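Form 7-S
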Amino acid sequence: MDKQTLAFYTQVRADMQSEMVRALKDGNSARAQDVYDAARAWDERYPEMPLLLNPAAIRRQFVLSGMHLNERTLKMLPRQLRGTSLSAEGSGATP
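Output:
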């Protein structure tokens, strides 16, 4: 039961963040305000599991959503692999 609850909470949070990003990308400030209000209502109704939408996470998701798949994949790699991949790519060497 706890795993299901946690999975539901995680999905709701991800959906709220995705909706916020979509509203911001579309320039729909009314929809962004609706999403924000819905998140605040959730936080008040379920204080033991608040969504607490993270502006940094939303900003990161917004930036990543505008990138091509290859660029986004490289950006999401761990820092150690990113350096190796970019240097190998720049030198023409194959990994």
